[in-house]
Amino acid sequence: MRNITAQATAAASQPSGADVAVEVRGVCKMYNDVEALRSIDLDFPVGKLTTLLGPSGCGKTTLLKIIAGLIPATSGEIRVNGKVVTGPGPERAFVFQDFALMPWATVMRNVAFGLELKGMGKDERQSIARKYIAEVGLTGFENKYPHELSGGMRQRVGLARAFAVNADVLLLDEPFSAVDEQNRRKFQEDLLRLVELEKKTFIFVTHSIEEAVYCSDRIVILSRRPGRIAQVIEPDIDHNESPDAIRRDQGYLDTVEEIWQGLKRYVD
Ligand SMILES: Nc1ncnc2c1ncn2[C@@H]1O[C@H](COP(=O)(O)OP(=O)(O)OP(=O)(O)O)[C@@H](O)[C@H]1O
Ligand SMILES: [Mg+2]
């Protein structure tokens, strides 16, 4: 594990030598008189999974929404592949904390929706959607509506939709929070495989320290509101080991403990 810094600066949060897909520069966010984020400087490198970890209300979803172009920063700017973000774009896909599925549309239509927006023909988009529906274990549910699914299943539809659009940047807001532990671990393996296979930039939010350590190349701990970067940690987990061996590994356990202590320090 590499504990980069407790008082992370922009320089400290820049991994050296990596292609950078998303640059966050001096981002602050006010919601009327509520200061949600203060002076966030972060780079998100291509091919890496960065996790935002921090207490409820510290601005994690807010930061993802600003990167997605769904809401503006009050000051500062975001660049994606070198271009300043002024709104949403097809190179970024968002899996929302609350699923945000279209309730009037079937699983198939929901998963294929991003491809429909791109103007892709029906046969092609349905064939791509079917592949990702299968990948998240929902084959047979293509014609169901969101209200006919469990919370965990709806979350999997959200994941399949994000993967189907083949975006460069995946913004994942607690994508596994509504699934049971067994599926959660399966999805963690799926996610790691995607990170390994596809040269995408993953920005992930979870409340689980264990999940963060298990899945992340880098963990950014945010302080209690207004969210500021408190600490940046690179867990350095060897995924050639079996999942069970990793979870028993002393380095893994020490990192979990270190983050727990860090959260207590920066959050209280
Ligand atoms: N649309 C909004 N209008 C006003 N205040 C908001 C709005 N959205 C978020 N906030 C406030 O901004 C702060 C950050 O919210 P945000 O949803 O980004 O936190 P979070 O870190 O994602 O929390 P959680 O872990 O509970 O999902 C909170 O205090 C919240 O009440
Ligand atoms: Mg949130």
UniProtKB/TrEMBL annotation:
Keywords: ATP-binding, Nucleotide-binding, Transport. GO terms for molecular function: ATP binding; ATP hydrolysis activity. Signal peptide: none annotated. Residues 22-249 form the ABC transporter domain. InterPro entries: AAA+_ATPase, ABC_transporter-like_ATP-bd, ABC_transporter-like_CS, ABC_transporter_ATP-bind, P-loop_NTPase. PROSITE patterns: ABC_TRANSPORTER_1, ABC_TRANSPORTER_2. Pfam families: ABC_tran. Belongs to the ABC transporter superfamily. PANTHER family: ALIPHATIC SULFONATES IMPORT ATP-BINDING PROTEIN SSUB (PTHR42788:SF13), TAURINE IMPORT ATP-BINDING PROTEIN-RELATED (PTHR42788). This is ABC transporter ATP-binding protein. The lineage of its organism: Bacteria, Pseudomonadati, Pseudomonadota, Alphaproteobacteria, Hyphomicrobiales.
